UniProtKB/TrEMBL annotation:
InterPro entries: C2_dom, C2_domain_sf, C2B_Copine, Copine, Copine_C, VWF_A, vWFA_dom_sf. This is Protein BONZAI 3 isoform X2. Residues 330-548 form the VWFA domain. One of its GO terms (molecular function) is calcium-dependent phospholipid binding. It comes from Dioscorea cayennensis subsp. rotundata. The lineage of its organism: Eukaryota, Viridiplantae, Streptophyta, Embryophyta, Tracheophyta. It is a lipid-anchor.
């Protein structure tokens, strides 16, 4: 759990989306070809980790790598950071594709995340700057051939003498099943114990599933509600994949959040989904209990109670349901033509076109994102704009058709964007300032037209820029207005500018944007990534697109839009 950022956010209670690659697998099967994989979900935990901190325990994070042919490692996924423990049980789950005919080597590396990085999103952490605890490796087939599909591996570290124990990591695999059943619940508590001296407790719930072997696996946690002994949390959505059967026992624990990661237990409740449904129907509260510190078989009944204010079953369609039924993702791009990029004729310019074919930062972002999205757009005609540039004998424009055609903003394919970009560098003078408002308004206009005509389209605007936006408040106002439309905005920062102000636009801290009139954004539609922070770690496309299926689903569900079949 990340302090204040990830630590106070909800995890796993939103019916999370499947990976985009599922659509590729479905396409192959629909055409009569063999599918790509059998889908497995991996859970990770660790025991007795070597403690690298002096005044507290380690703050561990695990990173999974795939070992490719030739031995090269490719990062696959990361867990959240769990604070102040040497026995972490990570909530984040990973979907991996099991292929019988190949040996799929996995490498698990565990790091202690240092305090200065606790407010940095996990995806942006540079593992080379963290303390390496140890690693272990195995083949995926070694896990699935175990009776309980669980394998414990000892951690190794070449720089530590062989006699020192580094701890172990346990990997559990479950075969996923395509269930659309989900339950939505609103939890409320009353009369919780106050653990704080100068204020009230800051409670959150953690829900775990009890496995057949008795192991307790966390499946979600709510957000933290500050200073409240009678909290009401945002709705929690649990899929059948998460909770198993309706009779499967669940453990619900209520904690008082502490920044040091040592959260104090306010009470526990054990029951099934069926029990929670019954509580909701009868409008009754269930008393929390706390295990006795002396006799663990004895339970102390507490005053605090758990209520289920809402319980509803629903069909929870996933990203693949929409894509495979005919919904499309429409790609749009806007490129920064301000003077701070440098003269395109010189090699130190961010817009320099290398004669030997090496892509500049703008080209890398266009190709990286465009090559993924283009498969979900049937006509492959992409609107493309320049902003901050001045045409010959003209004035500065903040939304100019990249192809130079005043009547048509679309180009054909990624090649069309690349060639129009090269041509625009010859036809436009770099100017300024850096304004996002006009291009976001144009993208919102196209999205609104599609929405009003009930087209099965969702729009993705890629903005590539080298500097901090000048019209920050107007940009926020525009994003808030657009948050109710079928639109996501991906922003890539290139070059060496200080992009800290830009992080305001990306609501990764859980706080929705607010316009100058006080209106809150309906949802988070922006993902911002400085390119320098992902180079060499994971691809720019992965960093930008990982939140997209979730944003897509949030829009469809909020509007009650169902797949086309």
């Amino acid at each position: 759990m990340e302090i204040d950022r990830g630590g106070k956010e909800a995890v796993g209670g939103d019916g999370a989306a499947q990976r985009v690659n599922d659509a590729v697998d479905h396409f192959l099967q629909s055409k009569g070809f063999r599918g790509l994989y059998t889908s497995l979900e991996l859970s990770l935990s660790a025991s007795d980790l070597r403690d690298l901190d002096i005044f507290s325990k380690s703050d561990p994070m695990a990173v999974i790598y795939l070992k490719k042919k030739g031995g090269a490692l490719e990062e696959f996924a990361r867990t959240e950071v769990v604070m102040n423990t040497v026995n972490p049980v990570w909530i984040t789950k990973f979907t991996i594709n099991y292929e019988f005919e190949t040996v799929q080597q996995l490498v698990f590396r565990v790091y202690d995340v240092d305090s200065p990085y606790h407010n940095v999103p996990v995806k942006m952490l540079k593992v080379g700057e963290q303390d390496f605890i140890g690693e272990a490796s195995c083949a995926l087939s070694e896990i699935v051939t175990r009776r309980d599909c669980s394998l414990t591996l000892s951690l190794q570290n070449p720089s530590v003498s062989s006699g020192q124990r580094l701890g172990s990591i346990t990997v559990r695999a479950e075969e996923t099943f395509v269930s659309r059943v989900a339950v939505e619940m609103i939890f409320r508590c009353i009369d919780l114990e106050n653990k704080d001296i100068f204020s009230k407790s800051d409670p959150f719930l953690r829900i775990s599933k009890v496995m057949e072997d008795g192991m307790v696996v966390p499946i979600c946690k709510t957000e933290v509600i500050d200073n409240n002994l009678n909290p009401v949390w945002k709705p929690v959505v649990l899929t059948a994949q998460q909770y198993g059967s309706k009779e499967n026992p669940l453990v619900i624990e209520c904690f008082d959040f502490n920044k040091n990661g040592v959260h104090e237990l306010l009470g526990k409740f054990q029951g099934s989904i069926a029990d929670l449904d019954k509580l909701s129907q009868q409008k009754l509260g269930a008393n929390f209990y706390r295990p006795s510190s002396v006799n663990h078989d004895h339970q102390k009944i507490l005053k605090g109670q758990l209520f289920v204010d809402k319980f509803s079953e629903k069909i929870q369609h996933n990203f693949l349901d929409y894509i495979s039924s005919g919904f499309e993702l429409n790609f749009m791009v806007a490129i920064d033509f301000t003077a701070s990029n440098g003269n395109p004729r010189f090699p130190d310019s961010l817009h320099y076109i290398d004669p030997f074919g090496r892509l500049n930062a703008y080209q890398q972002a266009i190709v990286g994102v465009g090559e993924v999205i283009q498969f979900y757009d049937s006509d492959k005609r992409f609107p493309a704009w320049a902003f901050g540039g001045r045409p010959a004998n003209g004035t500065v424009s903040h939304c100019l058709n990249l192809n130079g055609n005043p009547r048509e903003c679309e180009v054909v394919g990624i090649e069309g964007i690349m060639s129009s970009y090269s041509m625009a560098l010859h036809n436009l003078s770099l100017a300024g300032p850096t304004l996002f408002g006009p291009v976001i308004n144009k993208a919102a206009e196209l999205s609104a037209q599609s929405s009003s005509s009930y087209q099965n389209k969702y729009f993705i605007l890629l903005i590539i820029t080298d500097g901090v936006v000048t019209d920050i408040q107007e940009t926020i106002n525009t994003i808030v207005r657009a948050s109710d439309l079928p639109l996501s905005i991906l922003i890539v920062g290139v070059g060496g500018a200080d992009f800290k102000q830009m992080e305001i636009l990306d609501s990764d801290n859980g706080k929705r944007l607010q316009s100058s009139t006080g209106r809150l954004a309906t949802r988070d539609i922006v993902q911002f990534v400085p390119m320098r922070d992902v180079a060499g770690e994971i691809s720019i496309a992965q960093s930008l697109l990982e939140e997209l299926p979730g944003q897509f689903l949030e829009y469809m569900r909020s509007k009650g839009i169902k797949p086309l079949y």
